[in-house]
Amino acid sequence: MPYLPEDKPWYHAITIDLILRVLSHTFLNPIFACLAPLTMRAQNFHYEDPAMQVCMAYAVTLNLFWIAKQFNTRLAWGTKRSFDWSEEVVVITGGSSGLGLLMSQIYDMRGVTVAVLDKVPPEGEGRGVAWYKCDVGNKEEVYKVAQRVKEECGDPTILINNAAVAYGGSILDVPDEQVEDTMRSNVLGHFWTIKAFLPAMLKNNKGTIVTVSSVASVIAPAKTTAYSASKAAVRQLHDALAAELRGTDIKTLLVLPGQMSTPLFKGVKTPSAFFAPVLEAVDVAREVVGLVDAGRSGEWAGPAYVGWINWYTILPGAIKRLARSLSGADGGMETFVGRSGKKDE
């Protein structure tokens, strides 16, 4: 469900995502579309009747789109990998709070072994969650902790690179130390964890690597220079990694969320509650875990506008500028509070 602060009116819960979700389960559902001509036929409508022909064309079109989507999924993302949750070991970076914490809790409820890499202990305790104090931007720490994880938990089969930091301010206002911290945590952390855990996945020929990027990797709002650059970097890292792992049974998932209800971007104002609603972190956690469960490579983008954002990149410059101005995206960071130094997505 859309994120709705207590001080917001009820209609703020009505978003474009909610409308599209309702349509996908009704008028844009292939099964629903097939029922329409069958119902009309039961009422003695003839096939030559214009209304009947419209309904049949509607049903055929939706089902062809559905079939094309299945083919695309199979060809683009390959076959599914099998899971034995009693043997799976999940590593989540930045798993002590926010999105990472929620994902670790979901896996913990299933009885899956989870290793959390974070600088601070998780909020709450999980019977199957092991916390390892680690700054993922520090190569030596990551490699040492990775060895401990393998010895104490077993070879990781699922790696979720979720850790991130964010600092607000223009490029001249952000201290050099914060820029370096952003790149170490948000970019180099992905390199070090992948290099630490991928060899065992390749040896066992099974695994899943999840890259949590951001809509800011495509459209970078003002005063997010370091953060947006880091998220664009890990998106390209993901694409290159997916190409390198093609032909293996290692699956790669790219997650592109918009603004979430986590402390990382506390205070940021969404441009539009209707077109760009704030995501509940628990909903994103469910989506990510569901994609991992599906056993395929893939991408997830949410809310709906994030899935359309790539079209923005091919627009003429003048239209891009107008779109940014109308959206108000560049003013969102004016009220940024955040939680500096915390690895949280």
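Next protein, fold it too.
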Amino acid sequence: MHLAPFQVEHWLNTHELTARYNLAETDAKPFTVRELLAVTGASPDFLLDTRLSYNPTLGSDALREVIAGFYPGATAANVLVTTGAMEADFLLANILVEPGDTVVVEYPAYQVLYSVAEARGAQVKRWELKVEESYRPNLERLQGLIDEKTKLVVLNTPHNPTGAVLDEQDLRTILRWAEEQGFWVLCDEVYHDLAAGPGAAAPYARTLSSRAVSVGSMSKAFGLSGLRLGWFVGPEEFVEKAWSWKDYTTISNSPVSDLLARLALTHKEAVIARNTAIARANWERLSAWFERWQDLIGYVAPAAGVLAFPWLKKPGLSGTAFCQGAFDREGVLLVPGEAFGCPGHFRIGFGGDPDAFAAGLEHLSAYCATLR
């Protein structure tokens, strides 16, 4: 199996260690352990007796039960805990996709959502979100991509990198097609609980149809990317098949991550409230910044999540050149749209520390001033 180079991760790995202002982050401001304990009201004593041994490959029963509780109709047997959402997406592509299948992917997309299917020998069709349509999902265009060989439709809502969302009516329509035509729907929902913009995400896809698999994570909405913990919720047979693959990938998660994830999920409302407040404050600052630079940069307000995907109005200025210039001159890290197959765009994240975010925007302004 030959996997294409991961464009976004290569860019980040090349730049993030020396960036002074990281506006490329895609998650909520990371918690410290101390802050997580304070927000949840937990004592540090509960960590001290944790045995640092291998965790169960499927995840602890306790954590799987907590996760299942967010998906009415699911049980722990429907949950596989993974090393981040990326491993969940990777495992699902490997157990579902065979050579000759058709896979339709909402696009642009985080690369694991389509490159693994391509490596498996599938024909990948791209359901494009178009900037001239304000990135609104167009179901008529999706329907035209689905054929008799379609095995899997991959959705990402709220969407990386645009912040677009599928509303409940559209999601139900896609799931109805899946039930009628027999394909599966993988719905990556890692930003589901983080609504910083005016929109709101539809219910978890798995709660609406037995043909859906929902993917979640502690990284994006929860601000706990250092736990490296995600999951999928789907049919029991998928859990069993993916378990066999996980024996070859990561075997198990850390028991400390398992424990802290369970703590955060048990106090989900408090954790999400903290992160949403930060994201909304940062979005107010970023939207004002976009207005300040509207002669140079266009944007569509994200409906949810902590990402925006603006574009450059200056003729001949590529996203890569803009992002490299911001990095070289001011130490500001962004992600060029070319890493998503979208020349002339760039991705910016607004979930991080408000003071650092404000400083990063000021330095980005200093760079933009050189382009006028």
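About the second fold: The CA atoms of residues 156 and 188 lie 5 Å apart.
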